[in-house]
Amino acid sequence: MKQAIVIGASMGGLLAARVLTDHFDKVTIIERDSLPQAAENRKGVPQGRHAHGLLAAGANALGQLFPGFKDDLVAGGALPGDPSREMGWYQFGGYKARSESGIEGIFLSRPLIEGTVRARVKALKNISFMDNTEVEELEYQQNRISGIQLIHKASSLKETLKADLVVDASGRGSQTPKYLEQMGFMRPTESSVKINLTYTTRVYERNSSDVNGLKGLIIAGQAPKNKCAGVALAIENDRWIITLAGALGEAAEATEPGFLDFARKLPAPEIYNIINKAKPLSDFVVHKFPASQRRHYEKLTDFPEGLLVFGDAICSFNPIFGQGMSVAALEALELKKVLTETKSLDGLWKRFFKRAAKVVDIPWTIAVGEDLRYPEVEAKRSPAVNFINWYVGKVHQAAQKDAIVANAFHQVSNLLKPPPSLFAPRLMTRIIQTNRQRSAKPSQPSEAFGD
Ligand SMILES: Cc1cc2nc3c(=O)[nH]c(=O)nc-3n(C[C@H](O)[C@H](O)[C@H](O)COP(=O)(O)OP(=O)(O)OC[C@H]3O[C@@H](n4cnc5c(N)ncnc54)[C@H](O)[C@@H]3O)c2cc1C
Question: What are the φ and ψ backbone dihedral angles of 232, each rounded to 5 degrees?
Answer without folding.
Answer: -125, 125
